[in-house]
Structures are given as C-alpha cells and as structure tokens.
Write a structure and sequence with these properties.
25 helices; alpha+beta; 5-stranded antiparallel sheet
Length: 758
C-alpha cells in the first residue's frame, strides 16, 4: 500500500510545489509562464507515475488554473481567453502525458530486453567474448570464463590474442568488414587454459557496430570442441591404420609370398590368391567353379588334426599354426604350415595362410643328413684316434717295461742306467703326447670328467716340480720357489691339476735358454665375484723366449705354438696349454698368460677358489711294493697278443718270483685256465680272436680272481667297459713296471695268503 501511495505523494508534492511557485511568481510573470510551470509538474507526474498519475495532475492543475481565473475576475464567468488557455493547457498536458508514457514504456522494454539478453548470455552453453578493435576484452559470459578456468573479472581488459596457442590467428574486425558477406567468420582455434592445458573451440566472430554503423569490436561465440577433435583425431588414426592394414593385407595377398585363403565351415574355399592355387595345383577357374575344397585336399591322416584346429578356431577366434600336408590336384603331397583366424561367426567363415614347407623340409633333410655325416665323421675320428693311440702305445710298452725293470736292478751299470733313463723319459713323453690328443678330443666333445676331492695344491706343485727336476738341472736353470699362500687347499681333480702344473712348469723349462731362471710362487687374492672364499693364485714365470703380441691372444688355442721357427725348434703338438685352460675352467678357475714380447719371458697365472683343509687322517705305512710282491708270489695268467710285450712282461714278472702262464689269444687263455687256477689275470683288451672283456666274463667276471686290463685304449668308456666286465683296474699302455707292480699289490692285497698260489 505504501508502494502504491508513493506515486500519488509525488504527484501531490509536484503539483503543490508548482502551485506555490505560481502563487509566488504571479505578480511578476504572466499567465503563460504560470501555465508552463504547471505543465512541468504534469510532465513530472506522468514520467514517474504513469498515465493515471499524469492525468490526475493535469486535472488538478486545470482546477487550479480555473480557480485562479475566477479569483482574478471576481466572477464565475469564464472569459473566452481563459477558456482557450485552459483548453491549450489540457491539450498540452494530453500530448505530454502520451509522450512521457511512450518513452517510459520504451525504457521499460529496453530494460527488460537487456535483462533478458543478460540472462540468455549467462545461461548459454556457448561462450561469448566481446573485444574492441585493439583486441581488449570488454565482456565475457560465465560459460567462457569456466571454459578457460578464469573468473570473469580476470578476463576483462585482457588481450584476446594472448589466449591463443600454436600460432593460430583470428581475423580482425577490419578484415571481416572488408569481406564480401561482412557478417561473420568461423574458425577452429586452440586456447590456453589457466592450468596450461589446451582447449579446442569453434569460434564464430561477427563485427560489433555503434549507432553510427562504425565497427568498434568483435563478438566471438566460442563452442568447445575438444572432445570432437579428439574423436576426429582417433578416427583419423583408425582410418590411417585401417588403410595401412588394408594396404599391407593387399600387398601380402598380391605379393604371392604365402598362400592366403578364405573358406567357410563346410570346407569350400571362397577366395584364394595365386600363391595358394599354385601350391595345391588348382586354377582360378577351378576356384570359381567351387572345385577347391579343404576336405578334398587333406589326406585322411590329417583329418583329426584339422578338426582340433577347427575347434580351437571357433573357441578362441584363432588357431595355433600347425604343420600338415595337402594333396595337390595331380596327387602329389606338399608339406605346409597352416594358420587361421575367424572372420564371421554367422555364417562361419575364416581366413588363413598356407606356407609351402617343401624347401624347408628339403633343407632339414639335408641338414640332418649333414649332421649325421658329421657325427659319423666325428665317431670315425674318435675311433681313428683311439686306434692310433692303441697302435702307438702298444710298441712302447715293452720298451718302457724293459727300461724300468733294468733301472730297478741295482747291478745295472751307470752308463747303461743313463741311457735307460733317457729311454724312459722319451717313452713317457710320447705317451703324454698321445694322452694330450685324447684329452683334446674329450674336451671338444664336452666329456672331460673330473674326480674332485679336497686337494693340497702345494703338494701337487711339488710333485709336478719333482717330475721336471732333472730337466731343470740339465738346463742349469735357477729355480725360485715361494709357496706363501696360507690357504692352499682346493676342490679339484688331483691328477688333472697336477697335469696343469706339470704343463706350466714343463713349458717354462722348455722355452727358457740354458742358464735362465724359473720362478714359482703362490699367494692369496680377493675372492671371485659372487664368492666368499679367497682365491689361490699360482704364478709360473720364466726368462725365456717370450710370446709375440700377435701370438698372445691365441696361446691357449689347440695346436698353437707361435711361428714356424718355434715349432721346428721346440717341437710338440701345442695342446698342453689348451688342455690346461679347459681343465682350469672346468674347476671354475682362470688361467691367463702375459709377456712383454720376444725374449722378455712369460708369466702364467692360475687362479682357483680355496676350500678349508680336511683334518689329517693317520694312515699305516704302506709296505714296500717289492717286498710285498717278493714275499707273496702269485700265479698270474698273462694274455697279450704283442709278442715283445708278452715276452718281456712275463720275464720281468718271473724275475719278481711270480709264476706266469701266458697266452696270445682268448681261446688259448681259456684252455690254460681249464688246466689250472690263478690268483690274477693280466690281459690285453684287443685280442685276435675276441677281447679281454669277453675273456674276463667267461672266466667269472672277477668273482674267482681279480683282473688287470692292460690296453692301448684309455678313454673313459674303455675304463667303464673294463670295470663292467669284471676287471679290478684298467691300465693304459705304455705302463712302466713300477706302476704295474703297484697295481698288482693293490688288487691282491686283500686276498688272504691261503688263497694265493692255489
């Protein structure tokens, strides 16, 4: 009610104020001016109160004017001029109220339109951005501010172009107005958000003009299309990938490298490239006539394999490639590799490849044949080396037997003893060379067996040094021995490790000129990587001919001895170092060589992991071999087909109080065995009419009496076969008599005296 009364209060106040002014000015102004003052009051009431208030103000003013006229004339009669004024006043009031009302309505409409537009802009899904000709922002709606991650106030006054990235450029208002359509322009632009991320948007711009038609800026309608751009990009990638895949597939099919087929569940081949058709011997006309069927091309023995592949295909969408055979149109079989993947499930169709394996199968067959030939050649080589070893060892046996036997005789003259010692050393060297040949063969085949135990490495070095002691003296070499390693026990094969130490010392002696020096020392070093035990290190150094730099990397290769002059001067096979490194490597150690060059000497370093020493075990002293054998004469059956070995060995055994029965073949030995009993059998393996293995088995396999195999064959397999036949020991020729006598004692010492010489 108060709100409704306010316009009337204004109207009354305006009219009373006008009347007051008119009353005050009456003596000084004429009637027209007084009417104008009242007319202003009426206009004011109409402008702020509306038509009703304006009309009431006009009526009230007219009453005031009329009353004023009556007062001036002192009569109720109205003068014509007063009536005219009153009419003109009322007419003026009418037009003024109509004009004020129209203007008021227009303002209200404009205000409503502005409010509507504001609400429309603020609630729109698009962003609205208005900026002037200098690119300065004059308005942004809330949606645009949200897009860019700013508050609206933060964007006002900012340069529009600062928010564009990647060099995008928007056309200016002047550019737009110079275009033919002069209305709008649309571009895809990328904006920088407040957090640094990027925003793709489609921007539609239109010029903004003033009342005079002048362009004062641009209106940009911004619609975010980041997701659409991502989808378009993904779609482009997918299309490109599809195009590449189709191109590759097309090239693959057209290249005819492999056979490509499409078939249905019934087995009809729907499509095939030329490579597949050539593979199975059909033509494209046969394919078009439906004459190419999977079942017709598959031999019966592959039906089950195909069914398994089909089940896998429809269960998982693909089958693991598998090999089979096709029956060509001409009946010939062709081996192939097949793989398939499902295309459609309804109807069931699949695509597959077929790779012709004919050439591969031929290559595999040729490779297998070559492998078998190589294995056969390797076996033939091994057999040849074994036979060569046997043939080389056999004639050495009587020589070594005679030399060692005569050296054992105290009555042998000194000058003869020197020649016998020379003979024994050379025979032993020859046997060592033969052993090296067999060892390198074992190493190349990976059959180097080790009988490992806790070994005192210093003791092995001393033993190897004793073997070479005479050569050191003969060459007048100065020997320096410094075995300082406190921990010198290793886990190894004592025979093999002694062989390594002997090779290193022998080489130093061999390649050092007379009067030179030889140094052997041991010490500790840090453990091997990933190990805790200390390293046992042995260095064998000499002042010999040295090793050339170009030869040093090859010094551990088989048959490597440097240049031809060295080979001619020093001889040998060049296998010792190759075997030594292989033996050390098999023990988990390292063997390396160093030399400053020619005539600068050489240094060989051997490294092995140490182990704790075992507690010493007290042993009863071993009786003398000669004494034990002398006091225990044996009845020995000696079987040997080499006449010299048979004659000298039987003579030596007889000299040591043994009763010897001899035979030169297996059947001869069996006949002798039927006539008497024996304490021991010593037999060769290779006999003219059989083998020592068969002989031992016929004699009881070692159950009746022990046996010693004496053979030129000394491989691990030979030793195992001898043990399996019943022999107690296997000795490889040539054997000196001391070794034989020791073995005789070893295999017969457990027999009671009452069982001997039955």
């Amino acid at each position: 009610m108060q709100e409704a009364a306010r316009p009337f209060s204004l109207q009354q106040a305006a009219v009373f104020l006008a009347v007051l002014i008119v009353s005050i000015l009456s003596p000084f102004v004429d009637a027209q001016i007084r009417l104008c003052v009242l007319l202003l009051a009426v206009t004011f009431n109409t402008w702020y109160g509306g038509l009703r208030q304006g009309t009431m103000a006009a009526v009230f003013s007219a009453i005031v004017v009329f009353a004023n006229s009556l007062a001036m004339n002192h009569s109720i009669r109205i003068e014509p001029m007063h009536g005219i004024r009153l009419g003109v006043f009322l007419l003026s009031c009418y037009f003024l109220t109509r004009f004020a009302l129209s203007h008021r309505l227009a303002e209200a409409l404009r205000s409503r339109n502005e409010e509507w537009n504001r609400k429309l802009l603020e609630t729109a899904r698009e962003g609205f951005w208005v900026f002037d000709n200098d690119w300065r922002t004059t308005y942004v709606n809330n949606r645009l501010a949200e897009m860019l991650g700013y508050a609206q106030r933060e964007l006002l006054g900012e340069d529009f172009r600062e928010f564009l990235v990647d060099g995008f450029r928007i056309r200016s208002a002047q550019d737009l107005t110079r275009r033919d359509h002069e209305h709008s322009d649309q571009q895809d632009l990328r904006f920088r958000r407040s957090d640094g991320s990027r925003l793709w948007a489609t921007v539609t711009t239109s010029p903004v003009t003033n009342d005079r038609g002048e362009v004062v800026g641009l209106l940009a309608v911004v619609e975010e299309v980041t997701e659409r751009k991502r989808l378009e990009r993904d779609l482009d990638k997918a299309l490109r990938a599809l195009q590449i895949s189709e191109a590759r597939h097309g090239r693959l099919v057209e290249s005819n490298i492999i056979g490509i087929i499409t078939a249905d569940l019934s087995g009809d081949v729907l499509e095939a490239n030329d490579a597949f058709l050539r593979m199975v011997g059909y033509t494209r006309e046969d394919l078009n006539l439906g004459q190419v069927r999977w079942s017709d091309m598959t031999p019966p023995e592959f039906m089950e394999l195909d069914q398994q592949a089909t089940n896998e295909l429809w269960a998982s969408g693909a089958c693991v490639p598998y090999e089979k055979q096709f029956t060509r149109k001409d009946g010939e079989l062709v081996p192939v590799l097949i793989g398939a993947a499902a295309l459609e499930r309804y109807p069931k169709t699949w695509i597959g490849f077929a790779l012709d394996l004919t050439e591969r199968k031929r290559s595999e067959a040729a490779l297998q044949e070559a492998k078998e030939a190589a294995e056969s050649a390797s076996r033939a080589k091994d057999q040849f080396l074994a036979m060569l070893s046997h043939e080389l060892r056999t004639p050495l046996t009587p020589v070594l037997l005679m030399a060692t036997a005569m050296l054992e005789e105290p009555d042998t003259p000194a000058e003869i003893r020197t020649m016998l010692e020379l003979t024994r050393r050379n025979v032993q060297l020859e046997a060592r060379l033969i052993d090296d040949l067999l060892d390198i063969t074992r190493i190349s085949r990976g059959k180097l067996d080790l009988n490992r135990e806790n070994v005192n490495a210093h003791a092995l070095i001393q033993q190897a040094l004793e073997i070479c002691r005479d050569d050191i003296r003969a060459n007048e070499l100065q020997l320096s021995l410094e075995l300082a390693a406190g921990e010198h026990h290793v886990d190894g094969d004592p025979a093999r490790l002694q062989q390594v130490f002997w090779n290193l010392i022998k080489n130093a002696v061999k390649f050092t000129p007379r009067g030179g020096s030889l140094s052997i020392r041991s010490f500790h070093a840090d453990p091997f990587p990933n190990a805790t035990a200390a390293r046992f290190v042995v260095e064998v150094s000499d002042t010999g001919i040295g090793i050339e730099p170009h030869t040093l990397p090859k010094i551990f290769d088989a048959f490597e001895q440097g240049d031809s002059a060295t080979r001619r001067r020093f001889g040998g096979l060049g296998l010792g170092l190759a075997i030594s490194r292989s033996v050390v490597t098999a023990h988990g150690g390292r063997l390396s060589a160093y030399s400053a060059g020619k005539d600068q000497g050489a240094n060989f370093t051997l490294e092995l992991a140490t182990v704790p020493a075992l507690a010493p075990v007290a042993q009863a002293p071993t009786p003398s071999l000669r004494t034990s054998s002398t006091h225990r004469p044996l009845k020995i059956l000696l079987v040997e087909d080499n006449k010299e070995t048979l004659r000298y060995l039987s003579w030596i055994l007889a000299q040591h109080q043994h009763k010897v029965y001899t035979a030169d073949c297996m059947w001869g030995a069996l006949e002798v065995a039927q006539e008497d009993t024996f304490d021991l059998v010593i037999s060769d393996i290779e006999l003219p009419d059989g083998s020592g293995l068969e002989l031992m088995q016929r004699l009881g396999g070692g159950l009746e009496f022990p046996g010693i195999a004496l053979s030129g064959f000394g491989s691990d397999d030979d030793v195992q076969m001898s043990k399996a036949a019943g022999f107690s020991e296997h000795l490889t020729k040539p054997v000196d008599f001391l070794k034989l006598e020791e073995t005789i004692y070893s295999v017969t010492s457990a027999l009671p005296h009452k069982e001997l010489a039955r």
